[in-house]
Amino acid sequence: MLATRPDTDTIAITRTFDGIEEATHRVISQIGGMASVIREAKVAVLKPNFVAGRAAETGSTTSFVLLKAVAEEVRACGAEPVLCEIPGTEFDREATYTILGVEKFCTDNGIRIVRVDPEGGEDWVELRPAGVKRLRRFRIPRFVQEACLINLPVLKTHVVSTMTLGMKNPMGILPLSDRRSMHTLGIDQCIVDMNRGIKPDLTIIDGSVGQDGEGPLYGNKADLQVLVAGHDSLAVDLVCCQLVGVESSSIPHLKLALEQLGQPSWTLVGEDVGVIKKFRLPEQKALYRFIFWLMYPLDYPYTWVAERGKHLCTTLYSTGLVGTRPQISEGTCTRCGICVKACPLPNVIDLKLLKVNYSTCQRCLLCYEACPEKAISVKGFSGTMRFD
Ligand code: SF4
Ligand code: SF4
Question: Of 99, 115, 182, 206, which is least surrounded by CB within 10 A?
Answer without folding.
Answer: 115
